[in-house]
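debug: dumping io for the single-chain case to check the tokenizer round-trip. Nothing else runs in this session.
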Amino acid sequence: MNPTRIAQIIGLALLGTATPVSTQEPAGHSAVNPAPRADDWWKERAEKLSRSITETQDSQLIFIGDSITQGWEGVGAKVWEERYTPLKAVNLGIGGDRTQHVLWRLDNGNLEGIHPKAAVIMIGTNNSNGIDNTAGQIIDGVTAIVQRLRTALPETKVLLLGIFPRGENMNEQRGKLLQINQVLAKLDDGDHVHFLDIGYRFVTAQGLIPQDIMPDFLHLTDKGYRIWADAIDSKLGELIGENEAAEESPINGNWTFTIRGPNDEDVDMPMELKVEGDALTGRIGRGGDGWLSIDNGKVASDTVSFSVTRDRPEGGNMVYQLKGSFVEGKLTGSVSTTFDGAEVVRDWRARRPEAP
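debug: decoded output
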């Protein structure tokens, strides 16, 4: 590890008890030298983000990154509306950005006057192309961004994500990103900075990235953004301080979901539910290590409704619509789906794992 990186990491670890390493001094490579981009589109976008910050100074959450983060405004908009609009979250992603561009933005208006409870960072993939920057230089750049946030927003909790995998198959660039993530994990201090690597969720057991998650093997689909949101949900709730309040809902937590199987036998599956206002999120186990995300979840008084989408082995998907009621500590309801052109309806129930 080069001396610059050692100094940065030590400075981050001691932040608040010692003078932090200056990030204004010239560094030996591009990834840590704050720099704007020359194109007008980028300048307009950067200015727009600064205005968004000014207009949303009561935001509890900010996301910082490149086009993958900016995509929350596009194909990820539905998930964003469900999960992050209630937190008045601000998206500080710009397509094509590298660490040096983010550093410049953080110094020039993108943090002005805001005091969010948490910041999610996912940046660095654009620095990793070819020989643009080495793995060590990218680590320097991401570390500098974390430092900048800690200096500018000392009360904000940082959720640093490992750089997502890219490329349909295993490749050299993926290996480079994995090496970077291994070192970035060392920035996790268990208090102000928390590291989470969720990249494995986008990859199959064969090491492939499915196109229904990343159509170009880099940018996410709606399904990909939902995977992202589900993966950080628990940690983000912890950092923002909402988990304790969320426990007030008797529907929150772990359940054993039971439905009648094709052979007329009961099938039990784990289920996790979380209520935020009238929104219901969570997931249902599908056997092995797999999970199915709960979509379009709603809670009204003691009733719940949500949908679950499952892929079929022969191709295509099946969408299940579930409705239920919460009575005396248990959930009961019905689920409907269309199979071979006919509607199929079955009963379901859920109990706490420890309940008989």
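debug: round-trip ok. The CA atoms of residues 329 and 351 lie 7 Å apart.
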